[in-house]
Specification:
Length: 97
Amino acid sequence: MLSTMGDKIEGYKIVEYKKIVFGSATSGEGIGYRQSAIEKMWQNAENVKANAIINLRVNVYPINDTLQESTAYGNAVVVLPIEGYIATEGTSTAARK
């Protein structure tokens, strides 16, 4: 799933905005709870037939002295590669597949 904290993905055109999707996990789920929250968000994006997330945010909130919750959210979108697009030096999409 392509993902970025920005509002566009370099080399791709947004063709459809789906909805805001969320994922959350607690530190009680293990050491990778932040990643788990992101993966749950990606699954929710796939459920609405999106293939990318823009405006990705991840927040961590304390629940009590020993437990934290991580929430990931962003705009689920459908993107298509821009035909003939050539990235220039120094251009970074900050995207991940």
